[in-house]
Amino acid sequence: MSKNDEYRANAAECERMARFTRNESEKRTWQDMAESWLRLIQPSSAAVSDRFDAMDLDQGARASAGFEH
Q1: Considering the entire predicted model, what is its pTM?
Q2: What is the residue extent of each domain of the chain?
């Protein structure tokens, strides 16, 4: 299991606990913990390169439309 998968599993468990608790303060704490786990997830190298490819395409479209700075 990768670190990202571990973080997602931990977040899912926190979200599950938040759904089952009746105490609003505890519910918010579980939700905060889930969000903290999700913030630890690192983008995969493929996802990062896809974003840069999309940016290149967007800049190319702008340049051909005359919007380049």
Answers
A1: 0.62
A2: 3-64
